[in-house]
Structure formats: C-alpha cells, structure tokens
Amino acid sequence: MHDSVLERVTLRRSLGAKYLTTPAPSKEDYAEALTWAIAAPDHCHLSPARFVVIEERQKFADFFEAGALADGADQEGAQRARSKALKAPAMVAVVAKIDEHNERVPTHEQWMTVGAATSNFLAALELKGFAGKIVSGSSTHYRDAVDALCKKGEVIACWIMLGTAKPDAPGAEVRSIYDELLTYFS
Ligand SMILES: Cc1cc2nc3c(=O)[nH]c(=O)nc-3n(C[C@H](O)[C@H](O)[C@H](O)COP(=O)(O)O)c2cc1C
C-alpha cells in the first residue's frame, strides 16, 4: 500500500484544463481531500487555508470577464479570461488568511502551510484517480471573485483546476534528481 502510494506520488504530474475531462470529484472526494489538506503541518494550528468548490461556474466566468476588462483587456482577452473559469470540469479556490501580526508564526510559515495544504488536497484527489493543476494569475485579484469568496483579511491564493485525465493526456513524469537538493551535513 505505502509503496504504491509513494510511487504514484513520485510519478504525479499536473494536468491543465485542456487535458481534463469528466468525471470531476464528488462532494465525498472533496471531503476526503480536505482531511489530507488539514493534515499539513500548521504551526499553532492557525488553519490559514480553506477551500471553496466553485459550483456556479457561469457566475465566475462573468467575474473573470469583468475582471479582465477592468484590467484593460480587449474583448478577445476578456473572452480568454472568461473561458479560464469554464474550461476544466471542476474548479476549487484556495482562500488564504495570513495573520501578519502573529508573534509566534511569521507569515512565511503560514504561507508554507497554505502550500502544503493545497498540495495535499491535490495529491489526495490524484491518488483517488483525478488529475488537475494549480493555477493563479490576475484572476486571483479580480474584484468580483474576491468579494464573492473572501472574508475580511482573506485572499485568493490560487485555483485548483480538476477533472479526470483525458486518454491523450501526457503520462506520468519521472523527475530528475539533483544531488544538490538533498545533502548530508556530517
Ligand atoms: C501557487 C501556485 C500557482 C501556480 N500558478 C500557475 C499558473 O498560473 N499557470 C501555470 O501554468 N502554472 C502554475 N503553477 C504551476 C503548476 O501548478 C505546476 O506545478 C507546474 O506546471 C509544474 O507541473 P508539475 O506539478 O507536474 O511539476 C502554479 C503552482 C503553484 C504552486
């Protein structure tokens, strides 16, 4: 069991929307992924990351289009932004709350927890047979999206685009191992 989990994590690769099809994760899948996400190391248990499954995708397409136009995009650019909210079978927002005045946990530690939780969330879904990719960019700042998802002090850290790998999606990637990334001081 452990060997096969390790092997699958080692061989994982991100797949963007063009390589994704249905089925998307179910509510049960998301609930299980959350248990992995919250298992991430979290100094003082601040829970700096939460996850919002975007069910009303058309609304987010409107938000993305309006956001791109507000950023100065032309109609073509706005339509491109719009399509980003619709392309993948599923879309999850990672919302982060970073306490800049916490005396014990500096902001970089809180961001590390957001990253670890996000990575765990995606990895859990990948192990369940789904695929996806973390993306960010201007859309994380679009006014309507932020207003819809964030409470005071929160930001949209990134999106996780999700689905199932299409048959022609690139396969598992064996990563290069660089000697300098793991050394022993002895
Ligand atoms: C917070 C975060 C934001 C990212 N934003 C983007 C993005 O906007 N566009 C993109 O192509 N990749 C983005 N990436 C990188 C991809 O998610 C992915 O990790 C990268 O393509 C490498 O693929 P791999 O995960 O298979 O190694 C982001 C990664 C992280 C952690």
From TrEMBL:
Claim: Flavoprotein is one of the keywords in the record: yes
Enzyme Commission identifier(s): 1.-.-.-
UniProt remark on cofactor binding: Binds 1 FMN per subunit.
Cross-referenced SUPFAM superfamilies: FMN-dependent nitroreductase-like
Cofactor(s) of this protein: FMN
Pfam families: Nitroreductase
Keyword annotations: Flavoprotein, FMN, NAD, NADP, Oxidoreductase
Residues binding FMN, per UniProt: 12-14, 43
InterPro entries for this protein: NAD(P)H_nitroreductase, Nitroreductase, Nitroreductase-like, YdjA-like
A molecular function (GO) term: oxidoreductase activity
Residue ranges annotated for the Nitroreductase domain, each copy included: 12-163
Family of the protein in this entry: Belongs to the nitroreductase family.
Name this polypeptide is given: Putative NAD(P)H nitroreductase
Organism: Parasutterella excrementihominis YIT 11859
